[in-house]
Request: fold
Amino acid sequence: ALLESLSSWKAEDTPYLRSLSLEGYQINWSSNIFSASLTTLKIDFVREVKPDANVMPSHVDLNNIISRLDNLEVLSLKQCFPIDCDIDILEPMIHLPRTLKHLHIESYDTHAHLGMYWFLHLVVPAHCYVCVNAWSDWYEADLPIEAILSYLWDQRTAQELVLDGYGVWLSTSRRPDLPANMFGRQWICSNSGPNGGFNVGITSSDSL
Reply:
């Protein structure tokens, strides 16, 4: 009953709704609950549930949702990507709103590549902090790390760069008095990061 109510939601029902978090719940991707008033949207499908084409949004679904979110500042998607997403499939690029400050993408295990492939179909504002993380061992998925880094590197000018066992961390501004071993730790899985900065990494499933 709850999911049916959300699916038939009308935007005028809650004109002041600013934040929407769906954790483990999937509603109709055309629902008006994805309204232009939102500044924060978080969708988190639990890791234990394997992606299913009948549940996951299509590229068109995500494009339609995002195109309505003109005021969005935070977008966090975990294991919520088109099941047929592939780096070689030509899909229309999705332009994220200019208001976006933080983009967080995570995917897991044998489907860890889905989030990274989908990211390569996005046009991201240059000032937006980007965090893309795959929870997977190298042998479990073909991850397009080089393509993502090349895409971001062409957009952004680095003043501070750290490579460690968890990934690549870049900032477009120099932050004084920050120990190198703390550089990325303050950003990962947070709701904010340095303007224009990014974190792209792989976290071994053994560390979960």
User: Anything to note?
Assistant: Residues 183-189 have pLDDT under 50 and may be disordered.
